[in-house]
Each structure stands twice: as C-alpha cells, then as structure tokens.
Amino acid sequence: MSAPAPATAPAVSPATGRGERVLCAMSGGVDSSVTASLLKEQGFEVIGAMMRFWPDDKRVDTFDTCCSPDAAYEARRVAEQVGVPFYLLDYREQFQRHIVGPFLDEYAHGRTPNPCVNCNTKVKFDELVKKAKMLGCRYVATGHYVKRVVNAAGGVEFWRGDDPRKDQTYFLWGTPRDALPYILFPVGELEKPRVREIAAERGLLTAHKPESQNICFVPGRVQDFVAEHLPQASGAIREISTGERVGDHLGTQFYTLGQKKGLGLYQSHRVRHVVHLDPATNTVWVGDYDDCLWTGLRASRANWLLDVTDVPAELDVQVRYRSTPVRARVVHADAESFELAFVEPQFAVAPGQSAVLYDGPRLLGGGLIDDHARELPPIA
After folding, report:
1. How far is Cα 347 from Cα 361, in angstroms, rounded to an integer?
2. Cα 199 from chain centroid?
3. String of b and e for 123-160 (b: at least 16 CB within 10 Å)?
4. Which of 201-205, 213-217, 316-320 has the lowest mean pLDDT?
5. 165: buried, middle or exposed (CB in 10 Å: 19+, 13-18, 0-12)?
6. CATH number at residue 356
7. Is residue 224 in a domain?
8. Is residue 378 situated within a structural domain?
9. Residue 32 among known ligand-binding residues
10. Annotated binding-site residue? 50
11. Which residues constitute the domain of residue 259?
C-alpha cells in the first residue's frame, strides 16, 4: 500500500462564490447560522434549508435543541437576517428508516450504535445532496468543524477542523466519495469562540445559543428508550474464564462492552467488566479488565475516501468520538471491510461503533466495528 499524495494549502471553500448556488443546511444553531452568513458574503447564491425529523406527536424532551420546531423558527429568522430564502424539508420518514429503526436493531443484536454517524451518512450527505441537485445547487454547505482540502492532484479531501475540541470528521467517514467536491465547510478553519464572535458581530440571534449534546430522538436515558421498544428477556451473566453463572440480567440490550457498574453480580465485591454480548443465547459475559483488551479490530460496511490501494500500511484509528486516535497496522483492506492490529491493546472496543481512519489530519474513511470471534467456555 502506498501513501496518499500530500495535500496543498487547505481550502475551506472556493475563494469566491461567483454566483454559484449552494444549499446551506441550517439547524437553528450558531455554526450553521455563521455558515450561511459567510457564504453570502463570499458571493454565493445561498438557499437555507432545515431537515425536519420530528414527528407530529413529538414527545416531551425530544428534538428540543438542534432538531426542533423552535430551532426551525430560529433558522428561518436567521435566514431573514442574512437575506436568503429558507425551506423546511420533510425527512421524517427517512429519519425513522435510516436512524431510529437501525438504532434499536443494533441494540437488539448486542451492538452499540452511533446514530449521529448514520444521520450524517444516510440523510445529511446523501438525501440532502440529492435535494441540492434537484434545486440546481452546485454545493451543499454545513456548519461542521471539518476542513475541505484540495490536494496536489486537484481532488478534495476532508481534514480535521482547526478547533480540536470541536472536530467532527469522526461523524463524516461514511460520506460518499463522489460527493466530496460538492460539500463546503465555511467554519472548518475557525475555533468555536471565533464563530460566536462572528455571529455577535453580525447580530445573528443564535450567537449565544447553547449547544445540543444528547441524541435528539431519545428522551432521557438511552437504556429507558431501549426498554420501551425492545422486550425484556431474563438471562444469565457468566464468567468468561469458566462459564460459571455469576448473575442475572433482563436483556443483553441494556449492556455495552467495558461496563462495570450496575451489573448486579452475585459476588458484588468483584470488579468485573462486560466483555462479550451474545443475544443468540441471551448471555452477558463478564471478566477481568485484561479480558476486555482488544489487540485489533475488524470492521465491515467500510467507506473509503481514497483508493483502497492508496491506504497507508500504518494509520491512526479512532474508535469513539471522544477517544484519542491510536496507531494501528493495516492487516487487510478491501472495498467492503478492513482489519487492523493496534500498536498497543485498546480497552472495550465496542461492536457497532465506528472505526474512523486517519493519515495525520486527513480523514481516510471508516467502517462499523465487528465483534471478536472469541471462543467461549462451556456453560457451567
């Protein structure tokens, strides 16, 4: 495998819009508000749009910040301030099909999903790009903290945003490669405080709006939401080294790898971690810390933002949004999957989460982490 060509100076967007039409995704937050304002100043013909995800029977404490009726109202008012048209686009059916349904299905299969990755991949940078083309737009723009870089060959790459606390490339590994040239990130080279300053300087009403942190469609705790939609089924908690039954549970969907609290084991003084979930036998397997260390991972449903033949032999991989990237050797990579060997073992790499690949700041792609093919002991 050869190393990819080095990139030239980053280009957040074309130097000038020159009247090019761009569909700007507006969430009612400060990042997308500043995005629309900057694009207008750069000479683009901006069309503001918000994707409606919330249902008519929206529950209390869901879709309350970034994806809410109030946010839509604020996005429309910002569009008026900036002087661009605004449309509310109905994506309720797609959201249920691509986000909520798979979220519950993954838990039912003993995996830990990240719905924000699916939302960006299946909806924002798939459905929204299609809508942009229908509206005659050359580009789609969002308020993600990602840098759009043009390499020496003229191709477009995604790089980590300049604000390390806000970098959002982790969520964009599934972006279709052929869509990269048509996506703009005007705040990608800015830090969050500067974005708020720009919003305040322009008098945008979202300048001091707080950020959304929770999963938009989940009211309260994820465990409670899962319990409402997936049936409980009591089963055994077993020791991974012996097969001994050491506790009971109400469903594998309520656990995740690495978990050590709330296990309710018979011998409660022993520190145990969840090391494997087996919905087929309705068994939760627990063990020592060392039992939860992964020396590598396999991932499927891969998406590459470069030719597979150009994937470097060693790269950085990030297995959680807030985790530090770690060095890994590429054991195998093809169009659909890849296998990595960590330089140092990693704790509780959760199946269903994303393994996102980087070469320095450049986003290379990623995939969904598969479980270990581990040999389980006989049931005692």
Report:
1. 24
2. 26
3. bbbbbbbebbeeeebbbbbbbbbbbbbbeeeebbbbbb
4. 213-217
5. exposed
6. 2.40.30.10
7. no
8. no
9. yes
10. no
11. 231-287
Flag whether 26 is marked binding. yes
Q: What is the CATH number of the domain that holds 253?
A: 2.30.30.280
Dist CA 115 CA 98 (whole Å): 9
150 is annotated as contributing to ligand binding: no
Is 51 annotated for ligand binding? yes
Domain shared by 120 and 184, yes or no: yes
What is the rounded average pLDDT of the residues 47-75? 81
3-31 pLDDT, tens digit per residue, is 334 344 344 445 466 779 999 999 999 99
The predicted pLDDT at position 205 comes to 93
Q: In whole numbers, what is the pLDDT of the chain averaged over residues?
A: 89
Half-sphere exposure of 31 (CA within 13 A, CB side): 24
The verdict on 301 and 352 lying in the same domain is yes
Q: Is residue 183 part of a domain?
A: yes
Q: Span 118-147, mean pLDDT? A: 89
Give the pLDDT of residue 287: 95
- Binding residue per annotation — 30? yes
List, by residue number, the catalytic residues: 119, 216
**Residue that is last in its domain, among 158, 181, 201:** 201
Q: What is the pLDDT of residue 125?
A: 82
The confidence score (pLDDT) of residue 12 equals 45
How many angstroms separate the CA atoms of 270 and 239, rounded? 11
pLDDT at 354 over 70: yes
Residue carrying structure tokens 């229908």:
134
Domain edge (last residue) among 287, 322, 354: 287
